[in-house]
Amino acid sequence: MSGMSRTGLSENLHLHWQRSPLAQRWQALPARDRLALMALSAFLLLVLFYLALWQPAQRHAQAARAAFEEQRALYAYLQSRAPQLQGRDLQPRASLDPARLQGVVTASAAQQGLVIERLDTEGVGAVQVSLQPVAFAQLLGWIEALEAQGVRVEEAGLDRAEENRVTTRLSLRVDG
Fold this sequence. Notes:
By secondary structure, this protein is of the alpha+beta class. It is built from five helices and four strands.
């Protein structure tokens, strides 16, 4: 029964199409014009496919490749720094008076050219710092300078801001 209704529906649509003014105009066109219109339609479909699907997919693939290369460069940098950092835990740390932590953080950030957006005290010997977007390498240099003065990074939150820059939130602590 459903096959019959499909056939009836198909015949009904075909009959309706043949009676439409558009179909009558199409049939009235010379064969050469119909062929030209079909070729033009095929060309427009190809252009539409390219603009709507292919080109955006290529842009996304290129952006993904660029992000991958950026992550690969960061990984290579971190791997090159690993041997230097492995022996650090064995070295004695400098000690810093917990009361001086906020001043040391502020001064060293200014010295490294970093802009502190927010600095909150979290008890004795602990602060939370939020920085404006900064180059990742510059951030690592600042953290190294802080650690050399006896400041320990408890938590770090990094968000990608702009190209090669990160927005940073750090929880810093000094043992005292």
